[in-house]
Structure formats: C-alpha cells, structure tokens
C-alpha cells in the first residue's frame, strides 16, 4: 500500500483575487483543491485556464482552484505585471504569487503547466503535467466528491474568490491593430472580447464589433461574440471580393478565424471547428471549417494567402480565403529553436507577424525563445535570439543581442524591422544591413504590436496601458536610437542533479479513468528527446515509440537542458462510439551533472495516484 502524501503548505509573496486575504490549507479543509502551476507567458498554461472554467462552474461549491504563479521570465516576477495578467486572461480564482518558486519546489513541479489535486482531508491524490486533462479531472472529481460526501469530510459552500474591480477604459488589454484604408484603425480589444474601430488619432472610438462578452457567435456587429481576439489581417481587394469579407481575425481562445465585412460589421466563422487541435502533423490541405486550430495569435498576408502564427502548437499555418482551405506552413510542434527548410523547423509560441515591403520576407516574433525570426525563400532563419531560456535587454551585434518575450513586429520601408519587445517594455529595431539591434523607445507598458501607417508613422499597441501610442518622429533615426547593455537573464529553475553516463528517462503515463491506450492507428505513444547543448547527450537523442529510454550523458558537459516531448493517444474504454484523445507535454528540464546525481529521471505526463 502506497503511503498517502500530505499536501505541503502554500508559500509565496502574496495572493490575488482574495480581497487581500492570505490563504492556508486549513482555510480550505473540506474542499477539493486543484493547484494549477502556471506562468502567464505560457500558451499551454492559458489553454489550461480555459479548460478549468467549466470545472469551476460545475463543481463550484465543492472545488477550489488555486493558481500558483511560478514565473519563467524576469518580467513575470513583477507583481503589477502578474495582477494585469490575472485580469487580462479572466482568471476567476485565487492566485498565489510564487515568485521564488517555493511552492513549485515543494510540489516537485517540473513543467508549465502542472496540476495537483488535494482531497478534502489535505492529501495529494493526483498530479499531471500539460493540458487536455479536463475530462479525466471531471471523473476524478466525481469520485472524490462522492467518497468524501459519504465520509462526511466534504464541506460545500462558497469559495475564497473575491473579484477585483474593473477600471473603466475605452480599451482593455488591446492585442493587435491594423490600419484601414481611410486611416482608421481596427484594434482587437482582447479582454473585452471584441474589435474596436478608432479614428486616425488612435483614440476616438467610432464603433465596436462584438457584444463585449466572452463567447462564440456569428452575426451582426452588436451580437457577434469573440473570446480574447488577437491578430487582424486585412485582405487584398481581389481576395476580399471573392471571400465576401474584408478582414480576418484570430479569435484566439475560440480557436477560430473569423471574417468581418467592414461595411456592415457582420462576423462569420471562416476557419476552425472551435475545438483545440490535438492531432498529428500532416502536409495536406484541409477544408478550413473542418480542421481544428490552436490559439491563433497573429495573421499576415504572405505568399498569396493568410499565414497564421499558431502559438498554441508552435507552428505557422496557412489559410486560403478563396479556396477556403487551410494547412501547416512551418514547424513540427516541437517547442524549441531550429532553423532550416520549411516545414521541418522548430518554433516556440510565434505571436507576431509582419511582411517586408517587397513581400519577400515574413518576420516572426517567436516569443518563448525571445527571438526575431524570418521566413524567406522557403527557409526559416533566426536574426536575434538564442533559445528557450536566454533573454534580457541587450543591444548591439545581433548574435549577442537579447530580447524578452516579444509579441509583435513591424516591417519598415527601408528593410529593417521594429520589434515589440513586450516584457522589456520597449520597441527595438533590427537592421539587417548592419546586423545590429538598437532600442528606439522604452518605458512602455507591455507593447504587443506595431502599426507602420501609410504616412510613415509608427503606432504602438501598449497592451497593459490600454491604449495606442505614437513613436516620436525622430525615434527611428540613428540619432533617436540608443544602445542598451542591460542584464542578461537565464530561466532559473532548480536543476535536477544527474550522474554522468547511463540514465534511464521514464515518462510515466496512466490513462485517466474511463480511457485506455489506443493502438488502432499504430503505436499509441511517442517520445522525442534532444539536448541543449547537443553535446550533453552522447546517446539517446531522437524519436521513438517507447516512453522509457536509455540515455548517455557527457561527463565533459557540466549543465544543460534536456528537451523532452511525449505524447500518448487514448480512447474511451466502454463507449459504443469511443472518443479519441491525445495527451502531449513538452519539458525543458534544466540538469546539472554531479558525482552524486541520480541515474533515473521520471517525468509525469499524466498520473492519477488516487
């Protein structure tokens, strides 16, 4: 019999969404507690927030969800930035500010996101990494509630959540913007789940498209609904005439593309099913309304079609509004940085797109690698950026410069490109001719997009300031730019001490209640392993179908990161028409090679130790 594990106490800098109250495990005794370890840069964490919403509603008087915010980037350590993110993403449960990652360590979390379930008596009964666990959690919660109601240890009633007041501003966390033909601007008002048309001054509200409440509905401007929309792409006239709408909108949390006819404000769904993508990579064209998408974040007209920054699965996709088809353009879904011919490249949450003036180059803000990348002549290149764990605010030669989670890009007529360096609160400029990076504006509030107008002005979407602002006319000149040699940062998670030589890596997977591994279309599991630096692994890198693998670690490399991607296909065990599910998780595990390190590394893809 396995010993029961008592849940460790909460430790952190403070709490949000509790009305100023600090919570303890004793305060929540009698409730089922679900701990969600997240960080607000992480798209997988944002997916989990949306997966938890129906569970919070269904089990509201018995379940308490606690968000444990354990930061990756330096900017995410700022308490004001965390408070803004909690509002931006509509988090409706208490959040612990785990700035020193103390609670993260106590619960032995190794990946964002990680979920832990604590029963009403204060024992940890389940732990799982990644997304896609809503159905398994629902079944587990049903079991726990029935068991503890029968024992008399479940106490129903209101939870500790206290909603904060929402300030009145014309925009609330705007995401992206485009210029319309008359000088007007169309802005995605993300936290208000709508689009806003502004006058040429960037301030006067002319109309709103969308009811302003989270949801999914086509129709007239005043009744249509979005869920945290982001990117907007204006179609060329010939494409708009055939398609029957003028702009395409990335309806991010609905996992859809929506078309908008500007004359009337009519909204229609043009791509996606509304289900989040959980499938396998293929190179086929699909009917646009039959294929699942995953958090489309930005859009650009390139290569005679709409290219989609598919942040949720670390890829670029394409959408043809004339043929009404869609497919994969670049990326394998591995979250990392690797250049080369399309589509066999690695990306990490691409979130911003812009096309060069000559149409040859597609600039990409690859946010989780803090990188500026570009597509040209069928290949992906990195202009600035070093990988998933290196970031900062450093100007100078591009191979030494650092960004911090950029979300937007804006191509300039001279061939250079501006970068919305979001977590540095800056606008940066990369000049391909000189191969250098400079800072043209700083002190901004989470800039998320850039609009280069027909008149040559540059507008910045300052998301956390809830406004659009203009760069000073001289900011783009050489005299107006500055060179910053700021701090270099590296994600500092506690490393796992491993011994050099042979190592057994085990991904522990147990199907959730009511599901079984599905071998009907071939092997049900897949494991891909790589390392940074590559020299860390002498043997064991590559792709296989077993979730356990023998690795050999190099004793000449003191530390590094093991990059592990695991997935498992399951189906419902007893259903007549069984639904299929794909569980997937990426880990970037910091490791340190020591003489007393261990020879086995277990990772939990999904474990239900109830």
From TrEMBL:
SUPFAM superfamilies documented for this protein: NHL repeat, Thioredoxin-like
Pfam families documented for this protein: AhpC-TSA
PROSITE patterns, A to Z: THIOREDOXIN_2
Domain Thioredoxin: 1-146
Family annotation (InterPro entries): 6-blade_b-propeller_TolB-like (IPR011042), AhpC/TSA (IPR000866), NHL2_NHL_rpt_dom (IPR045302), Thioredoxin-like_sf (IPR036249), Thioredoxin_domain (IPR013766)
Name by which UniProt lists this protein: NHL domain-containing thioredoxin family protein
Lineage of the species this protein comes from: Bacteria, Bacillati, Actinomycetota, Actinomycetes, Micromonosporales
């Amino acid at each position: 019999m396995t010993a029961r594990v008592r849940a460790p106490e909460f430790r952190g800098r403070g709490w949000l969404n509790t009305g100023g109250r600090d919570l303890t495990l004793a305060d929540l005794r009698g409730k089922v507690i679900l701990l969600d370890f997240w960080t607000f840069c992480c798209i997988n964490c944002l997916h989990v927030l949306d997966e938890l919403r129906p569970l919070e509603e269904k089990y509201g008087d018995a379940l308490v969800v606690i968000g444990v915010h354990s930061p990756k980037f330096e900017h995410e350590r700022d308490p004001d930035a965390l408070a803004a993110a909690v509002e931006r993403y509509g988090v409706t449960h208490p959040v612990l500010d785990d700035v020193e990652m103390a609670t993260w360590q106590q619960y032995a979390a190794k990946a964002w996101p990680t979920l832990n379930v604590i029963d009403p008596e204060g024992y940890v009964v389940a732990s799982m990494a990644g997304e896609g666990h809503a159905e398994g959690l629902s079944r587990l919660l049903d079991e726990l509630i029935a068991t503890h109601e029968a024992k008399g240890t479940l106490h129903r009633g209101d939870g500790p959540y206290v909603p904060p007041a929402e300030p009145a501003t014309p925009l609330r966390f705007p995401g992206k913007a485009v210029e319309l033909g008359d000088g007007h601007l169309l802005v995605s008002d993300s936290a208000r789940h709508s689009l806003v048309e502004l006058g040429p001054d960037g301030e006067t509200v002319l109309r709103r498209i969308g009811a302003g409440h989270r949801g999914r509905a086509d129709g007239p401007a005043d009744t249509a609904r979005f869920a945290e929309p982001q990117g907007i792409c204006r179609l060329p006239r010939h494409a708009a005439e055939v398609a029957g709408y003028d702009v395409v909108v990335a309806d991010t949390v609905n996992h859809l593309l929506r078309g908008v006819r500007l004359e009337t404000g009519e909204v229609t769904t043009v791509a996606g099913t509304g289900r989040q993508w959980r499938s396998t990579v293929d190179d086929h064209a699909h009917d646009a309304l039959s294929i699942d998408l995953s958090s489309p974040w930005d859009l650009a007209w390139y290569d005679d079609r709409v290219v989609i920054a598919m942040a949720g699965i670390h890829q670029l996709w394409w959408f043809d509004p004339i043929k009404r088809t869609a497919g994969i353009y670049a990326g394998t879904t591995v979250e990392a940085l690797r250049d080369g011919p399309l589509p066999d490249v690695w990306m990490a949450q691409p979130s911003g797109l812009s096309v060069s003036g000559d149409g040859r180059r597609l600039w990409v803000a690859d946010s989780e690698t803090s990188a500026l990348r570009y597509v040209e002549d069928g290949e992906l290149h990195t202009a600035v950026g070093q990988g998933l764990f290196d970031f900062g605010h450093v100007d100078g030669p591009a191979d030494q410069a650092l960004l911090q989670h950029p979300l937007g890009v804006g191509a300039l007529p001279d061939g250079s490109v501006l970068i919305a360096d979001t977590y540095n609160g800056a606008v940066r400029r990369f000049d391909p001719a000189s191969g250098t990076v400079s800072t043209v504006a700083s002190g901004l509030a989470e800039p998320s997009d850039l609009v280069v107008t027909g008149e040559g002005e540059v507008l910045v979407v300052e998301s956390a300031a809830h406004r659009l602002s203009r760069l000073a006319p001289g900011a783009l000149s050489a005299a107006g730019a500055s060179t910053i040699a700021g701090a270099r940062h590296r994600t500092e998670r506690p490393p796992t001490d491993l011994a050099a030589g042979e190592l057994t890596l085990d991904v522990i997977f147990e199907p959730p209640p009511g599901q079984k591994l599905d071998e009907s279309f071939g092997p049900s599991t897949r494991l891909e392993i790589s390392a940074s630096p590559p020299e860390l692994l002498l043997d064991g890198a590559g792709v296989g179908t077993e979730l356990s693998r023998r690795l050999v670690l190099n004793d000449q490399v003191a530390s590094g990161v093991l990059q592990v991607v695991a997935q498992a296909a399951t189906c419902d065990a007893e259903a007549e028409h069984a639904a299929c599910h794909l569980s997937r998780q990426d880990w970037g595990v910091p490791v340190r090679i020591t003489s007393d390190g261990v020879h086995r590394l277990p990772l939990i893809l999904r474990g239900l130790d109830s």
